[in-house]
Amino acid sequence: MIIPELAWNPTFFDDPDGGEIVLWPYLPCVRMPAKLRPRKWDAVALITSLDEIEIIREEEIQDRQSPGIHVESANFSGTSLGMLIRDLRSLEIDGPYIPDPELLRLIRHAENARNGLPIYPVIPSLDDERWADWLSSSADEQVTLRNLLSTFRKSKRWEKRRNDAIGKVQKNPHVDASLGAASTVCAAWWLEEGAGLSDRLIVERTRRLCSRIRGALSNLRGMSQWDGKAEEPSLLVPVQQAQLPSLVAELHSNVEVEPIEPEGSLNSKWWEKNAG
Fold first, then answer.
1. Which residues does residue 26 pair with via DSSP β-bridges, in sequence order?
2. Per-residue DSSP letters for 23-90?
């Protein structure tokens, strides 16, 4: 996999059917500087499943009861997540944290905003047949002999990717050297997570995610609060920094719209008032 440009500023996509998608790059497990965060948005689409949103809420409660429990567990897991946590810990940054501090912040903001704001889970649920097929194919590819043998070279591959990513980190006045180094760590982690996948599966996943992101904006446009208004809705999509270029490219390929709905635990008063 090729290391992409690692940008800090959001990318704005004007949907041909109306409304705006704000793709905001963030680093997993890191609390981002306030000046990098988008301020104006009407709903958030998280690249997680509905179950994962609930897990984030549960992890927050557990972390309050036993601070750092999930970070410590990941650190000793022997997985690529453990490598991510280990390297982030060596840097002077605000992190690492589990649950992810930026996703948790956006969930809480959406819940606590006046009347609540929609939260869309972009990743399909496990009862989605197409997604279940993709997961099955992904699992099959991960356990091929070639991929199993490649696990013995993980540490060496990780360091090479970190080093190669240095030249891809874009400059930003709100980003210091430590956060720039964290960007290379997170890029190495993202590439390692997809190392066992074929190009076909990666493209298929990216296309599906973009279709559902457009579907979230379509659902938001259809809510009664936008009827007759000149201003169109803005959908915020936090994206792991290294994943941003592929999603932007796919959205510009005129990907189809797959209808999705917001999380069912929205404030009932908001839903009664704004649902079409």
1. 240
2. EEEE-TT-PPPGGGS----SEEEESS-HHHHHHHHHHHHHHHHSTTHHHHHHHTS-SHHHHHHHHHHT
pLDDT in tens, 138-172: 888 766 645 444 555 678 889 999 999 999 999 99
The residue whose two tokens read 């990907």 is 255
Joined tokens for residue 195:
């190392």
Q: 207 near 255, Cβ under 8 Å?
A: yes
The values of phi and psi at residue 136, to 5°, are -65, -45
Q: Is 91 helix (H, G, I), strand (E, B) or coil?
A: coil
Q: What is the DSSP-derived secondary structure letter of residue 17? A: T
Question: What's the rounded Cα separation, in Å, for the pair 40 and 212?
Answer: 21
d(CA 13, CA 212): 14
User: Which of 139, 141, 117 lies closest to 126, judged by CA?
Assistant: 139
* pTM > 0.85: yes or no: yes
Pseudo-torsion of CA 140, 143, 144, 147, nearest 10°?
Answer: 130
Identify which of 182, 157, 151, 262 has the alpha carbon closest to the alpha carbon of residue 215. Answer: 262
